[in-house]
Specification:
The structure holds two protein chains of two kinds.
Chain A (H helix, E strand, L loop, with lengths): L1 H25 L2 E2 L7 E9 L14 H6 L22 E4 L7 E2 L5 E7 L2 E3 L2 E5 L3 E6 L5 E5 L7 E5 L4 E6 L4 E7 L7 E7 L4 E3 L5 E7 L2 E8 L10 E7 L4 E3 L2 E3 L2
Parallel strand pairs in A: 1-4, 2-18, 2-19, 5-8, 7-13
Antiparallel strand pairs in A: 2-15, 3-14, 3-16, 5-6, 8-11, 9-10, 9-12, 12-13, 16-17
Chain B lengths: L7 H9 L3 H26 L18 H21 L2 H21 L13 H30 L3 H26 L4 H24 L14 H29 L11 H32 L4 H31 L10 H32 L33
Helix pairs in contact in B: 2-5, 2-7, 2-11, 3-4, 4-5, 5-6, 6-7, 7-8, 7-11, 8-9, 8-11, 9-10, 10-11
Classes of the chains: A mainly beta, B mainly alpha.
Chain lengths: 251, 403
């Protein structure tokens, strides 16, 4: 009996020691930003015939008034005349930079203007905060539905400014919506690093400050590359040079 | 044949007869309860459960102090009336309750200076659901109070108490769905329990109604009556099970566009279909029993007929809602959800409630017909006994005697 007890205690201590040792080996190190002179650029295009833009039928008089000069159009697919796709979230896969730690406590602002969320797509780093400002003369509710972070459903009167997200954990595409104005949506990405970009109206993007090496570059779009179906490419970044990564999305 | 003398049963029927206006109040609670369920179902169909972010206020109105104070006053007055049986306390409780509902209606959510809350579809649906829920809570509590005073049958008064507990429990569940941003489990429970509480309203309406106290046709056979009771209770259980499986399916949060949550959705769908088969099996057994052995009793055949019609509509609407959801989902965002897509799902919920009401009527009638003579339930008048003829075979039962 004494022998069995001694063996159990020894095994437990050995396991604890292994766990502690493993933790020490896996601890992330600060990212050497001064050595990160590489970058990646590219353009995202839409393959095929892009859907025609459709008008949003707004029910709120304040929202209608804000768009009286130009009708509001859906923003889930923004394609220019050269089939360049905007609002694609391009990011380095977290596992590609897992051995580095990035500390951040920045504050980001999403505005509600003309009954739209601006920006429509936002990337933040773990540790950041996201605030929301109601710039309209009508009330909105800001409703987030994350799975790894804390959700919120907040009533916002005109001019209210409130924190809607404390980025605690990595999460792709946290949807933000207003339940009163159903067309209002935005997406927030929480990543453990700041190596991401959002394609502009001409479909272009640029991610700077990368160390030389191989990376997995991921593409997300709310209609054509959602979180359940990640699109990605492998890229190789050289010191001081810009890697090229054009990408094509389709229906 | 001599005329049957008044029986003890028929005398007791008159003694325990509930006043007509109490029955009308129960019917009102049932109708309002149906409306609450319709608007609640439509809230889910529109994904409007979070469009009023706070509870028990609505977009901050009325102020929390008034809400909690009003609830407290209503409860204190209500309990005082039930205890002291002073009529003026009842009127005060009613006044406070009506004022509370009126306060919500008058102040209501205020989203902008130029539009009323009823002009926003999601807010209109959710807030109306809350208003009707407040009204049905008020009606149920007043109904319970009137049962305490005017209802002689203790088991009916208990049913009233259970209805009050049920409706308050529903209010708490509704608050939790808002406070925790419509978590699927709580939301599904809120949807299922609503039907259960509705069945209590129906039950009170049935057992306080004038038809309940009418002399019924004699029971064909005690075994047969017990079998029917058992079958209708199984039917009720199967129905509640099917409602809970349907609620789980509706709240499985499957995104048809992205495919997120597909496996959970299809599991729930399979369970709902299995539940449907079991429910239809129970319905068929009840239908066969009623048609074969109780076709002379309109209080069984009428709800059976209604149930059969409702269930056909129910299944058709379910199929239509599902197909429409599959066909329309591919390229349409939430902002442009067609009106028909939501209304089909809501109608499916509404017809479930109507079917449930028929099931409840069937069950209570079956319980009544199978109740033993000594029970507290009013009994059907026994068939008149006739003296046996002198040339009848020895051992033969007298003509008309119950078997």
């Amino acid at each position: 009996m004494k022998n069995i007890t001694a063996i159990m205690i020894t095994l437990s201590l050995a396991l604890l020691a292994c766990a502690a040792h493993a933790g020490e080996n896996g601890k992330p190190v600060p990212f050497p930003a001064d050595k990160a002179t590489g970058s990646v650029t590219g353009t995202v295009t839409f393959k095929g015939e892009a859907p025609k833009p459709t008008e949003i039928l707004m029910s709120d008089n304040v929202c209608k008034e804000a768009h009286k000069d130009k009708p509001p159009m859906r923003e889930d697919v923004l394609v220019d005349d050269k089939n360049h796709l905007a609002n694609v979230f391009v990011y380095v896969a977290p596992e590609s930079l897992a051995k580095y730690e990035f500390k951040s406590e920045a504050e980001h602002l999403i505005k509600q203007e003309g009954c739209r969320y601006l920006p429509h797509v936002l990337g933040v780093v773990v540790g950041d905060k996201v605030l929301c400002l109601n710039g309209d003369q009508t009330s909105h509710n800001v409703h987030t539905s994350p799975t790894a972070n804390s959700p919120i459903n907040l009533a916002q009167q005109p001019a209210a400014k409130d924190k809607i997200l404390s980025a605690e954990d990595t999460e792709i595409a946290i949807k933000v919506k207003c339940d009163v104005h159903a067309w209002m949506t935005a997406y927030i990405f929480v990543l453990p690093h700041p190596k991401f970009a959002i394609t502009a109206a001409d479909g272009s993007f640029k991610i700077e400050g990368l160390l030389p090496g191989k990376y997995k570059l991921c593409f997300w779009h709310e209609r054509y590359a959602k979180d359940e179906e990640p699109k990605s490419v492998e890229i190789t970044v050289e010191d001081g040079k810009a890697a090229k990564a054009d990408f094509e999305l389709s229906k | 044949m001599s005329e049957a003398a008044p029986t003890a049963a028929s005398l007791s029927n008159a003694d325990v007869r509930t006043p007509r206006w109490v029955h009308n109040l129960a019917c009102a609670a049932t109708v309002i309860g149906f409306a609450v369920i319709c608007f609640g179902g439509h809230t889910k169909s529109l994904d409007a459960g979070n469009s009023v972010p706070d509870w028990p206020t609505s977009w901050g109105s009325p102020a929390k102090e008034y809400v909690y104070g009003g609830f407290a006053a209503f409860f204190i007055l209500g309990i005082s009336w039930a205890t002291l049986r002073k009529a003026f306390l009842a009127y005060l409780a009613l006044l406070v309750g009506v004022s509370m509902v009126g306060l919500y209606l008058y102040f209501g959510p205020e989203l902008n200076a130029s539009q009323g809350w009823w002009e926003f579809e999601t807010v209109r649906t959710e807030h109306t659901h809350r208003l009707l829920a407040g009204l049905v809570s008020l009606t149920t509590m007043v109904l319970f109070g009137t049962l305490l005073v005017h209802e002689k049958r203790a088991w009916v008064r208990r049913l009233g108490l259970f209805a009050v507990i049920g409706v308050l429990g529903q209010a708490v569940l509704g608050g939790l769905t808002v406070k925790f941003y419509t978590p699927p489990l709580v939301s599904a429970l809120h949807g299922t329990f609503a039907q259960f509480v509705f069945s209590m309203f129906c039950s009170i309406a049935v057992v306080t109604g004038p038809r309940w106290f009418e002399n019924a046709a004699p029971v064909v056979g005690s075994d047969d009556g017990r079998r029917l009771r058992k079958q209708t209770l199984w039917l009720f259980g199967a129905f509640i099970l099917q409602v809970s499986l349907g609620a789980a399916l509706r709240h499985s949060n499957y995104n048809f566009e992205s495919g997120k949550g597909a496996s959970v959705f299809w599991w729930h769908f399979g369970a709902h279909m299995a539940g449907l088969l079991f429910l239809l099996h129970c319905m068929a057994k009840v239908a066969i029993n009623v048609i074969r052995n109780h076709s002379d009793d309109p209080r069984l055949t009428q709800p059976l007929g209604a149930m059969s019609i409702f269930v056909v509509f129910q299944i058709s609407l379910g199929v239509a809602a599902f197909i429409f959801r599959l066909l329309v989902s591919s390229d349409v965002s939430e902002a442009e959800r067609p009106w028909a897509k939501a209304i089909l799902s809501t109608a499916h919920v509404a017809f479930a409630t109507l079917t449930l009401s028929a099931v409840v009527m069937l069950a209570w009638r079956a319980i009544q017909r199978s109740a033993p003579q000594t029970s507290a339930l009013p009994q059907p008048a026994p068939a008149p006994t006739v003296a046996p003829a002198s040339n009848s075979a020895p051992g033969a039962l007298p003509e008309g005697a119950a078997t």
